Amino acid sequence: MKLAWAVSGAGIGARAIVEAHSAGLLKSRIDLVIFDRKGPTDSMMQFCIQRGVEFKVVKPETLEQELLGIQHECSFDAMGLTFNRLVPQTVIASFGGKIFNLHLSLLPMFPGFGATRKSLESGLSHTGVTVHFVDAGVDTGPIIAQKKVEIRDSDSVATLGRRQFEAAVPLLLHTVRMLENGRQSPFDEPDPELAQFSAQYCRQL
After folding, report:
1. What gap in Å lies between CA 31 and CA 18, rounded to an integer?
2. Please, what are the domains in the chain?
3. pLDDT of residue 41
4. 103 is catalytic
5. What pTM was computed for the model?
6. 36 within 8 A of 11, measured Cβ to Cβ
7. Which residues touch 45 (CB under 8 Å, ≥6 apart)?
8. 36-58 average pLDDT score
9. Which of 30, 122, 146, 155 has the smallest count of CB within 10 Å of its CB?
10. In the chain, pLDDT over 90 holds for what percent of residues?
11. How many CB atoms lie within 10 A of CB 155?
12. How many CB atoms lie within 10 A of CB 109?
């Protein structure tokens, strides 16, 4: 499967895909990482350089045209998002609907940006993470998988967000494996082998 990934931050999820491929757990590697900015993404850019992964920085003001051009040129089978930009419907259609997103809440709660902060301010005992297919709405696409994450009294946005990403990594890996096998159905638990790899990966972050 030819896979692209769009990143706005440190690329924890995208790195996990690259590492799982190197470990022989996924058939797909990431063929192109797409960034919407420099600065917060610098460490992921360095990772791409070190691992020989192609990357491209797109301008937010020309996001739609650039993503359409990338897909026209490269014909990716799917794209993963850990991305702080809304993807236009034309781009979703160009990928045949096979764009999936990591959202840091238990959707439909707290859609949109700032979900970790909203969860922390909610007074709830837990939040979670959701991997879902992208549609024309804001975090409204079909849900692939979800995982609960406890909210602790001592949590900050940073500490809660870290545990959310740890919960999300196995879901992202299993989603890629699912698409590799030609399936798009929701799942409750990731493959145990991928879950074990994810735990080891997250301990090294």
Report:
1. 10
2. 3-203 (3.40.50.170)
3. 79
4. yes
5. 0.95
6. no
7. 35, 38, 55
8. 92
9. 122
10. 95
11. 18
12. 16
Q: Report the SS3 class of residue 54.
A: coil
pLDDT digits (tens, 9 = 90+) for 85-120: 999 999 999 999 999 999 999 999 999 999 999 999
Question: How far is Cα 88 from Cα 137, in angstroms, rounded to an integer?
Answer: 10
Residue 5 has which token pair?
């990934």
Task: State the pLDDT at residue 153.
Answer: 94
Which of these is catalytic: 21, 103, 132, 174? 103
Round the CA-based radius of gyration of the chain to a whole number and report it.
16
Q: Are 119 and 99 in contact (CB under 8 A)?
A: no
The sign of the dihedral angle between the CA atoms of 117, 13, 57, 100 is negative
For the record, the structure tokens of 146 come out as 């979800």
Helix, strand or coil for residue 184?
Answer: coil
CA–CA separation, 88 and 86 (whole Å): 6
Distance, in Å, from the CA atom of 16 to the CA atom of 99, rounded to the nearest integer, reads 18
